[in-house]
Design a protein that fits this description.
heterodimer, A: Uridine Diphospho-n-acetylenolpyruvylglucosamine Reductase, domain 2, 3 domains, five-stranded antiparallel β-sheet, four-stranded antiparallel β-sheet, globular, B: Aldehyde Oxidoreductase, domain 4, 4 domains
């Protein structure tokens, strides 16, 4: 398992990355925790790897009263270790600490996780649940959009050729926001079979789940019921209603994923 | 820091810290990938991505033909593998596929290059055309008359079909209780921390092929290589460096190793193949893959009367040298009675050829499957009779007064106290407390606690009688040791076994030190190089402490006798009047050091007694007096919490009560048990290589193949009983495999117990959360059915 030959360029500034590599097929690498195994297994190929992790724009950490702005190149470990300002309920830190294994967290980045858009990835789910925005730079300028619009499907984003995510903006949660989270894996550290995040706050009641659709799924009826009924919610029924378009209600997947959603929401309600 | 973890005057039973740990913990160890030789090239293999097919053409890339090898480029003799039984069908297993490929991962070609990456680049340039054939993937369908044939000259896809028939199974038909159950243990890999590797070159000075090999048995592999390469053994030297685990996976001669050695005869530089993890999961030894279809007969009290049925072993596409895989089937069948006084056994066993990687030995070898079957059957009988499984165990377990006990599977269980072992485990796991806890929980609770038990016995130190019974091509009926006293009184012992993580450098030094009255640190235990080590069979089948321990004891005593004889002469007294202490031969009136004695025996032989030859060196062999084996045994007791919605299982407590006779080094014994239990947990809950209908392995990286890590393992509480063996030195028994045998059964029984109200079927490993949820849903549905009708 060794990759095919390639050249390697270490970028230190954003213009280096965006100046174009049109003569060669190239890929960006930050933490490489997904890309390097894929290259080693030769299921991904490139002539050139451009290392982007050291670029300052990808490592910003800014905090205001209303939001947190963080670089796409920040590692999961940076969040786990509390070196990144919190969104208000410790959710990002909790999500980060539960990604894979520490060795991977030391190198893997939040931007890499979102750009790959693996259906089982944790950051897309978390950032969508937090209504985060992604800032993107390309050869032709910059733009920003909701992470919810950036992630289109399994391994599919709306990033165009030559574009990369530079940072995310996460609105801070209202005070006293209650958060619950449940992740089901084959074993600790493995990719999740399903992962649910529930956020309950005045005017903001959202429950999202991965492992059901090709991208994080809003449990719409459940979220509306939470807003309307709070702790009186008939949880089993509304979750079932949200899952049944995607899963056979008699299947074992339905039972397991229903439990994941239920546990996340119960955890939030219990706070 | 003291080298002893507690103050001990006797070395037998001392938890001496391991001598090998200094180099392993400080990074001074040398594994196969650490060996760097000038001009060394790396080998990569082109492996079939088709499970079954005819090779129509192979095109080497232009300009690189000299760096590519395929079948026919090198003269390689076929090695006939399998038991010496006319009924066992043999098939050639050419290192480079010839005419057909028979499993995904089978080698078609090799490429040599300055490094592995470039060798893989070259492999990509080789064009192969394969006409795909339907793959044989299901072990039962494989023996249908119309199944595609792996070997066209065989009448069906069976390596061998055999029968174990003891007692009178006809009378079982009238038994009051007859339960029919199926059990499946799925295919897995061995996943040693270090993969396989081989580095070979022709040494022009020595006029020999040197093969550095990550192996459990260098001498045996040398025999195989000499045969395959048609080269005299005197022209081959196999050297095993430090080995990062083997567990059976490095105890067969594999095609990569033969191919690299054959290529090394052809080229002018060292050649190396270091296995990568994907190759390991695809094409290294595969294990477990058993299917049991059994009927257990019992009386109304739960007394087991007999077991009948079929055992299918999915043995993969080829027989591995030297033994093939028939042992899996025969051991699976013969171990079915377990520790229970069962008088009737009627099993037909099938060793089936399929389009998968060849099966080989893996810690426990067949016994995890047999233990899973019998221990689950015990619990099923208990459940059927609404009795406690521990009561059914108590009722059926062999009593101490029955030892030595000849089982219907043909094993002579030597000694022990199985009943006490079971009772201690029941007590230590807190059985009554768990039952109280279960009663205190509402049935609406998602998480259910369960407790499960399993008992295993581990045949160890078996020699000529057992191996000849198995019709082994190679009979590992003894072990050897060569002991040498250097002229300064320090000792070196070479053994024929092969330490690959078991701490033999420490335990065998303890034995020699005990016999010679020396510090274990003054004794080197060395092994691994066929040019230096006396012939021996290597380490496997939990044999080393019995065989090499015995050989080291015997050689040390012979050395002690000669030392005393010379010492007595130097002290001008009788042989019987002297004793050994702290490196001296002592008499009432004086003492003489080993170094003085060694000086006399090597460079000053005029000082020797007239009837004594010079040199202080002995090469001796040893076999225990009873070669049918000595049996370690134990009870595993497990408590789990299982979520009935998600099937998620958490191990809350794990107790092992085991008896391996006299323990030379209890710390090392605990290490062996812990390691075995971790692997057993892997088998029980995590590890599996599923295959698609067209024979594609679906777990070839750790993304899909789940290996337990530290966070999945509970604290393992280990307790010992000590019934010395009566036929081995010091009363030792082997202990390497037992830890891995019982966990799947104990954990499965615990999960079944957690859901005993709905009687779920817990019959297939690994017990993934999906399998558990499915079993719960099936049980809930049939309960609802039952209520309606």
């Amino acid at each position: 398992m060794k990759s095919a030959p390639l050249t390697y360029q270490r970028a230190s500034a954003l213009p280096d990355i965006l100046s174009g590599n049109s003569e060669m097929n190239s890929m960006f690498i930050a933490g490489g925790q997904s890309l390097l195994p894929m290259l080693a297994l030769r299921v991904a190929r490139t002539d050139k790897l451009i290392h982007i992790k050291d670029v300052p724009e990808l490592n910003v950490i800014e905090e205001t009263a209303r939001e947190v702005r963080i670089g796409a190149g920040l590692t999961h470990a940076a969040f786990e270790d509390g070196r990144v300002p919190d969104e208000g309920a410790g959710l990002m830190r909790d999500v980060a600490a539960d990604i894979a294994y520490r060795a991977i967290r030391n190198l893997g980045t939040i931007g890499g996780s979102v750009a790959l858009a693996d259906p089982a990835a944790d950051w897309p789910l978390c950032l969508i649940a937090l209504s985060a925005r992604a800032f993107i730079q390309g050869q032709n300028g910059s733009r920003d959009l909701w992470v919810d619009d950036l992630i289109k499907g399994a391994y599919e984003t709306s990033l165009r050729d030559g574009e990369l995510i530079t940072s995310f903006m996460i609105p801070k949660l209202p005070a006293h926001a209650r958060v619950g989270r449940c992740k089901l894996t084959k074993k600790k550290g493995a990719f999740s079979m399903s992962h649910a995040i529930a956020i309950l706050a005045p005017g903001y009641n959202k429950a999202y789940i991965s492992g059901v659709d090709t991208r994080p799924l809003l449990l719409r009826s459940t979220s509306e019921a939470l807003a309307r009924d709070g702790a009186q919610i008939n949880l089993a029924d509304v979750i079932a209603a949200d899952l049944s378009p995607y899963l056979d209600a008699q299947s074992y997947e339905f039972r397991m994923i229903h439990a994941v959603a239920s546990d996340a929401i119960m955890q939030a309600l219990s706070k | 820091m003291s080298a002893y973890s507690r103050s001990e005057t006797s070395l037998i039973g001392a938890s001496l810290l391991r001598k090998e740990d200094a180099r392993h913990l400080n990074g001074y160890a040398q594994f196969i990938a650490d060996i760097k030789l000038p001009r060394m090239r790396d080998v990569a293999f082109l492996r079939s991505d088709v499970a079954h097919g005819y090779i129509k053409s192979i095109q080497k890339p232009k300009g690189y033909e000299q760096q590519i090898y395929i079948h026919g480029d090198l003269p390689i003799e076929n090695l006939e593998a399998g038991p010496e039984l006319a009924a066992f069908r043999t098939s050639p297993y050419p290192p480079f596929a010839h005419e057909k490929v028979r499993y995904v991962g089978q080698i078609i070609a090799s490429a040599l290059a300055p490094n592995r990456a470039q060798a893989e680049d070259l492999v990509e340039e080789i064009e192969v055309k394969i006409e795909e054939l339907p793959a044989v993937v299901d072990v039962k369908k494989a023996i249908d008359a119309d199944a595609p044939r792996l070997f066209v000259h065989w009448p069906d896809n069976l390596f061998i079909k055999a029968r174990v028939d003891e007692g009178d199974h006809h009378q079982l038909r009238s038994a009051p209780i007859r339960l029919h159950r199926q059990f499946k243990m799925n295919r897995q890999a061995t996943v040693s921390l270090e993969g396989r590797g081989v580095l070979a070159y022709w040494d022009k000075r020595a006029d020999q092929l040197i093969v550095h090999l990550s192996t459990q048995g260098p001498h045996i592999m040398r025999i195989g290589l000499a045969q395959a390469l048609n080269v005299p053994q005197s022209k081959i030297r196999v050297i095993a460096p430090d080995i990062g685990g083997g567990f059976g996976g490095k105890n067969r001669l594999m095609p990569e190793e033969i191919a690299v050695a054959a290529m090394a005869l052809r080229v002018d530089f060292p050649l190396r193949w270091i296995e990568d993890r994907r190759e390991h999961l695809m094409a290294s030894v595969h294990a477990r893959d058993h299917y049991y279809d059994l009927i257990v007969s019992a009386d109304h009290n739960g007394r087991i009367l007999g077991i009948e049925g079929d055992v299918f072993i999915d043995a993969g596409a080829y027989a591995l040298w030297p033994t093939g895989s028939f042992m899996e089937a025969s051991m699976a069948a013969r171990n079915l009675p377990g520790p229970y006084d069962i008088k009737n056994l009627a099993i037909t066993n099938y060793t089936v050829a399929t389009n998968k990687a060849p099966m080989g030995p893996y810690r426990g070898v067949a016994r995890p499957g047999a233990c899973f079957a019998i221990e689950r059957l015990i619990d099923e009988v208990a459940h059927h009779l609404s009795k406690e499984p521990i009561d059914i165990r108590r009722l059926n377990m062999i009593k101490s007064s029955q030892f030595p006990y000849q089982t219907v599977g043909g094993y002579r269980l030597d000694n022990g106290d199985y009943q006490t072992c079971l009772e201690r485990a029941i007590d230590l796991i807190g059985f009554n407390t768990i039952r109280d806890y279960q009663k205190s929980k509402a049935s609406s609770e998602h998480v259910r606690r369960g407790v499960g038990f399993a008992f295993y016995s581990e045949q160890s130190g078996h020699g000529t009688a057992e191996w000849t019974k198995r019709k082994s091509r190679i009979v590992p009926g003894y072990e050897s040791a060569r002991i040498k006293l250097n002229s300064d009184g320090s000792v070196i012992i070479h053994i024929g076994a092969q330490n690959h993580g078991q701490g033999h450098e420490t335990t065998l030094a303890q034995i020699a030190a005990f016999e010679l009255g020396l510090d274990p640190h003054a004794i080197n235990i060395d092994y691994g190089d066929t040019a230096i080590a006396p012939f021996g069979f290597g380490s496997f089948a939990s044999r080393t402490i019995v065989f090499s321990g015995g050989a080291v004891a015997k050689a040390s005593r012979a050395m002690a006798d000669k030392i005393k004889k010379i010492g007595a002469h130097l002290l001008q007294t009788h042989d019987q009047s002297v004793f050994i202490k702290n490196g001296f031969v002592c008499a009432e009136h004086g003492e003489v050091s080993f170094s003085e004695i060694a000086r006399a025996a090597t460079i000053r032989q005029e000082l020797l007694p007239p009837d004594v030859n010079p040199l202080l060196e002995f090469t001796l062999t040893y076999e225990p007096s009873e070669s049918s084996g000595v049996f370690s045994y134990g009870t595993h007791a497990v408590v789990v919490d299982a979520d009935q919605r998600t099937g998620n299982v958490k191990i809350i407590d794990y107790v092992v009560v085991e008896d391996c006779g006299v323990m030379i080094n209890p710390m090392i014994v605990d290490g062996q048990i812990s390691g075995g239990v971790v692997q057993g947990i892997g088998t029980a809950l995590f590890e599996e290589i599923p295959y698609s209908d067209n024979g594609q392995p679906l777990a070839t990286t750790f993304a899909d193949y789940m290996v337990p890590t530290a966070s999945d393992i509970p604290t393992i509480r280990i307790y010992h009983m000590l019934t010395p063996a009566t036929t081995t030195e010091y009363g030792v028994k082997g202990v390497g495999e037992g830890g891995a045998i019982a966990p799947p059964a104990a954990i499965a029984n615990a999960i079944a117990d957690a859901f005993r109200e709905i009687n779920i079927g817990v019959n297939e490993t690994p017990l993934t959360s999906q399998r558990i949820v499915k079993a719960i849903m099936v049980a809930e549905a049939s309960q609802q059915e039952a209520r309606r009708s």
